[in-house]
Amino acid sequence: MMILKLPATAVLCAALGLSACNDPARLSPDGSSKTEQAGLFGGIIGAGVGMLVADNKVKGALVGAAAGAIAGGVIGNQLDKQEADLRASLASDGITIQNTGDRLIVSLPQDITFGTDSFTVRPTLRTDLNRVADNLLRYPDSSVQIIGHTDSDGEAAYNVDLSQQRANAVADVLQSGGVTFDRLQTYGRGEEQPVASNLTDEGKARNRRVEIVVIPRNS
Q1: What does pTM read for this prediction?
Q2: Strands in 5-102 per DSSP E
């Protein structure tokens, strides 16, 4: 019987793919990936796992690929539905939602969420955050990372502290809306992960944000 050996590069690609799903610093830069991309990614990882578990036999690879593709498709389909529900419920035009195929990223611009140098959530945004909490309750099989970001103005250490406090403040609102503590993780990234240039006012405004990252637990 022919034995199929798994190349070291395939193992490395699978490991990198899995780590990218769980590292908040490796968020996809665009929202083009949807259900199909999630299924394809799951199939690739499933093939690698199947070849390892099934004594490197072709049959194991095929079974693993099929299982991975199905799991990835289910995750992508769930995220599509959750994204649509969120878009229908949120009132603020400033909030953006990005579906990367394996997670949702809800971005809250600082200018509508907090005052300057403040970590108190504006009353006008609490309604939308409560709607996010309701959405998370309807889709309970996920973990939630809340990541604070700033622009490059001011001392780096101060920005890290402020971004952490803002992430904590958003988490507090979600918790008060019924999301359990064990689902929430908060991070303060300060100025470390800009999405635009800090050389312009427009770029700085985009960098000042809190992201709510929804990750299916079986991804």
Answers
A1: 0.69
A2: 96-99
Q: Are 177 and 133 in contact (CB under 8 A)?
A: yes
Angle at 117 between CA 112 and CA 119, to 5 degrees: 65
* Strand pairing category for 184-188 and 142-149: parallel
pLDDT digits (tens, 9 = 90+) for 146-180: 999 999 999 999 999 999 999 999 999 999 999 99
24 vs 167: CA distance, rounded Å:
13
Q: 218 pLDDT band (50/70/90 cuts)? A: confident
* H or E element at residue 49: helix 35-53
Q: How far is CA 71 from CA 46, 65, 101, in A?
A: 9, 10, 12
Distance CA 203, CA 209 (A): 11
